[in-house]
Each structure stands twice: as C-alpha cells, then as structure tokens.
Amino acid sequence: QVNHVKTDSSIFRLHTNATVILLVTFSIAVTTRQYVGNPIDCVHTRDIPEDVLNTYCWIHSTYTVVDAFMKKQGQEVPFPGVDNSQRSGALTIRHTKYYQWVAFTLFFQAILFYTPRWLWKSWEGGKIHALMMDLDIGICSEIEKKQKKKLLLDYLWDNLRYHNWWAYRYYVCEFLSLCNVIGQMFLMNRFFDGEFMTFGLDVITHMEADQEDRMDPMIYIFPRMTKCTFYKYGVSGEVERHDAICILPLNVVNEKIYIFLWFWFIILTILTTLTIFYRIIIIFSPRMRVYLLRLRFRLVRRDAIEIIVRRSKMGDWFLLYRLGENLDSIIFRDVMQDLANRLHNNQHHRVPGMKGEIQDA
Predict the structure, then answer these.
(1) Taking the model in full, what pTM does it have?
(2) Where this protein primarily resides, as one coarse class (predicted)?
C-alpha cells in the first residue's frame, strides 16, 4: 500500500518499507519449491524409498566433515565436506540444520523491521493527515483555502511548544531501527562468520601455495553437498547403517539472500547512524533548524523562519518540516508567514486555558 502522506524520513522508510518487502519476498521465494527446486535430494539405494530418505534427512538434518573442506576435490574427497566420517572422527562433524528455519527467520526479521513503523503509526495518530485538510492540492476555491489555512494556523498557534514529546517518539522509533539492524547483523555474524573466521584462516594456511585450489568460503557456510546417515532393520533383525549424499539446492538461494542482506544491513547501519547524529544536531542547534527549513523550503522568507524557530521548540520544527513536505508549497509559505507575523505581533504568547497556566508556570 502506497501512502502519499509523508510522516517519516526516507531512511526510516528504507527500514520499515523496503527492507520488509525484501524479507517477505525472500521468505516466500524460499518456501516456493516449484520456482526454487526441491530443498533436498539424496542419493538413495533401492532398499530405502526416495521420499522416506529425503524427508528423514530434511527433518533430522545433514552433516559435513570439517577436515574434508581442506582436501582437494576429485583427488582426496568427492565433494568439499564429504568424507568418511568414521575415519575422520566424530569431533570434526558439523551438523547443518539451519536451512529448516530460513523461511521463518526471514519472516520474523520482517516483523522486527516493521515494528518501529507500527509504533510510529500508533503514536503519530494521523496528525499530519488531519492537519493537511487536502491542502496538498493547491487548486481549490479561495474561500475554502482561507478557511483551512485559518484552522491550521489556529492549531499551530494554540499548540505551539507542545510537540516535543510527539517528535521525540519518532526519534525513538529511528533509534529502535538502528538497534534492530545492528542486532540482526550481530546475530548473522555470530551464526555464520563466528565459525567461518577460524576456519577461513585454516583454509588460507593450508592452500597458501596454490591460489587456484582455494575453496569458496561460502561452501563452508552454505554447503551444497552434505551427508546423511539412515538406520533401519535388516532381514536378520540387525540394525543396518546407510550413508547417503544429499544435495541442498536451496542453499544456493540462501547464500545469495544472506550475502545481499549482509551488505544491505551495512548500508542501513551507516545511513541510520548518520541520521541519528543529524537528529542530535537538530535538537541542540536552533541555527541548524533555520538552515534546514531555509534549504528545504525556498519560498518561505528567512526572517519568518528565524522568528518561528526562535519562539518555538524542536517538536514544532519537526511538525512544520513534515507539514511542509506534504502541503502545497504556496499554501505552506502563506501559513508560515502568517504564523511568523502573529508571533512577531504578540511578544508574550499565551496559550489559553490549562496549557497557558502551565506554560506561564
């Protein structure tokens, strides 16, 4: 759903809109077998039905032999990670079972990224849309335009300096987005790179002499060929052990997804960190607020902007900035000029009723 009312920044929408769409799309792609392929295909014998072996190995996970990743394919081992597990020892076996949870994890990540947007929609309460009153379209009758501008001007006058809490809640949502993406990067690094860093050094040391034979590190993190052990009763009642080689075509898709997400999260982290510093500067620098309003809305006179920023607070600046992005530029210029004139003519601004008493106190 496309929302034409802008209540947040473009960086925030990258978190809550673009990233959510990407994660949900990836989750659907992983679960759609007819487009991606079977999640697992195992080489089986006639004694074990194909469907039974594939289902068993998918449910109970497969494994790879760590020492086999550093051996030459085609000479020492048939595939990277596939070797005689009994000869290598049980301590070198690495079980692969995360592929069962990729689709659910991606969907859960999408929920986490959407949470700040849901919070901001609840806290924002449709304020921007209500104050717009269809003034984003400059073509309307002069009487209607004058009435709506007066209503908007009266609201800004009566509620001046009482929007800080409203704006700070948006800043909290931006900070939650930053914490969210950093936390997910940490978990991805912990889950994948935590094991890969140590193993990567071993691979580089072992194959330093032969650059061409170096193994792709992604094969260790997302193995294409794995092993599976299936036990069954034989004809004489003895337990028989059957080893199978399994192909994981879905891991090719998982690899591309997580590589893209890793760099996407890095970009989001950098942009959101800069945005947080930008917000801190805005909070403590009224001069920067004047500069940004002047830079964004060229039609508004500088003296009007300076009067409004000097007589208002940061939350009012945030509300005016959001209104300026949604209203017609001519109408927004008139509202800002009228508000500046009213503030200039009334040096002792007093909000009537309970708000005025609290403000005077």
Answers:
(1) 0.81
(2) other
